[in-house]
Amino acid sequence: ISSWSPLHGDWPRRLGNGAAGLLYPLLGACLWAAVVAYKPVIIVHGLFDSSGDFKNLQRFINESHPGTNVTVIDLFDRSASLQPMWKQVEGFKDAVYPIMQNAADGVHFICYSQGGLVCRGILSTLSDHNVHSFISLSSPQAGQYGDTDYLKYLFPQFVKSNLYHLCYTAVGQRVSICNYWNDPHHKDLYVNSSDYLALLNGERPSPNSTEWKKNFLMIKKLVLIGGPDDGVITPWQSSQFGFYNDNETVVEMQHQDLYLSDFFGLKTLAARGDVIICSVPGVEHVWWHSNETVFHSCIERWLV
Ligand SMILES: *[C@@H]1O[C@H](CO)[C@@H](O)[C@H](O)[C@H]1NC(C)=O
Ligand SMILES: *[C@@H]1O[C@H](CO)[C@@H](O)[C@H](O)[C@H]1NC(C)=O
Ligand SMILES: *[C@@H]1O[C@H](CO)[C@@H](O)[C@H](O)[C@H]1NC(C)=O
Ligand SMILES: *[C@@H]1O[C@H](CO)[C@@H](O)[C@H](O)[C@H]1NC(C)=O
Ligand SMILES: *[C@@H]1O[C@H](CO)[C@@H](O)[C@H](O)[C@H]1NC(C)=O
Ligand SMILES: *[C@@H]1O[C@H](CO)[C@@H](O)[C@H](O)[C@H]1NC(C)=O
To answer: What span is annotated as the signal peptide, if there is one (predicted)?
Structure first.
């Protein structure tokens, strides 16, 4: 696990010593053009968003990596984002697959909030994906549990104390947020009921887990971005696979069963040095994709 600090890194060198360039200027120029062509970036939005919310992020990418082909997938917008997670995975998968097939050198994923869980589903079930950097931008990777003002606004009738009555039923599981609602006081209900996150995180066994792990491990980097002032993702450490125990103390990723069991490859990725944790204070949930400091500190260098 490496924590990236913008102050201590050096930029990845994209150009070699260029012997070929000295001997064959034209060939060198062609190689240069090929090597600096940035991989296409695919953006997957979160709950209640739509593609228009990513104008700033698109601008940051265009400014730092000119010529990058950025696609914000315009599916399951607004209230349609409440549809079940597996359904969204299938829809987004159909949209991203042709982009991957057009990208011989692979693509990058930037997946925001609930979109980070959609992307987990895609990366686990698509056996020939070519995603290099999977950038998870404040996504509840270990689940969500919190009656924040935002959630109260979205679901005025369901406060934290009784959301599990809705979520942990077959009907509740038809609502996206219930697919990853993780009530630490009713762990067995979550494990038995969650048709999505409990399967992906290996809290409930799935017949496809070996295949899913193999697929997920084809990514080159997992970048987990989050911060203490998020205000929506609860606990905020869920953006980095930390979560509450049954007395609501946050247990960090490295002490979570889902990490220790290496169920879906998280520990393997960390041992490879390919899990990057980027924590930024002072960012509220709705600003993650529009904050230029976040882009420069946590995202930019993984888009090469
Ligand atoms: C990218 O930046 C260039 C130069 O500033 C500008 O002309 C172009 O319209 C931008 N493209 C997008 C998609 O923002
Ligand atoms: C960007 O990628 C999409 C999907 O692969 C493709 O349809 C489109 O033509 C590309 N745009 C440019 C300017 O290359
Ligand atoms: C969860 O499932 C297990 C195994 O099927 C069962 O023994 C247990 O009673 C279930 N727990 C709840 C709360 O439904
Ligand atoms: C496992 O994979 C099979 C075939 O790929 C699929 O039909 C099935 O729905 C998958 N199971 C789950 C739990 O996703
Ligand atoms: C809560 O759990 C943590 C970790 O298991 C433990 O250290 C702490 O003492 C517990 N706190 C209470 C009030 O039970
Ligand atoms: C952007 O992030 C920085 C922290 O890196 C924070 O100080 C600033 O308030 C943020 N701006 C917004 C609009 O979120």
So the answer is: none
Mutation test residue for ligand 4: of 208, 212, 214, 264, the one with most atoms within 8 Å of CB:
208
Task: Give pLDDT tens digits for 54-75.
Answer: 999 999 999 999 999 999 999 9
CA of 207 to the centre of ligand 4 (A): 8
- For residue 291 and ligand 6, the question of a CB distance below 6 A is answered with yes
Please confirm, yes or no, whether 113 is among the known catalytic residues. yes
Does the pTM surpass 0.85? The reply is yes
pLDDT digits (tens, 9 = 90+) for 107-161: 999 999 999 999 999 999 999 999 999 999 999 999 999 766 666 666 666 555 5
Question: What tokens does 138 get?
Answer: 């404040």
Q: How far is the CA of 250 from the centre of ligand 5 (A)?
A: 10
Residue ranges of the chain whose pLDDT lies below 50: 2, 4-31, 33-34
DSSP string, 172-196: GGGSGGGGSB--TT-HHHHHHH-SS
Q: State the DSSP string of 9-25.
A: --PPP-----HHHHH-H
Tokens of 302: 């993984």
d(CA 213, CA 216): 5
Quick one: which ligand is closest to 244's CA?
5
Residue 241 contacts residue 266 (beta carbons within 8 Å) = yes
Residue tagged active-site, from 230, 274, 289, 297: 230
CA 82 to centroid of ligand 5, rounded, Å: 34
118 contacts 44 by C-beta, under 8 angstroms: yes
Instruction: Decide: 192 in ligand 3 pocket, CB within 6 A.
Output: yes
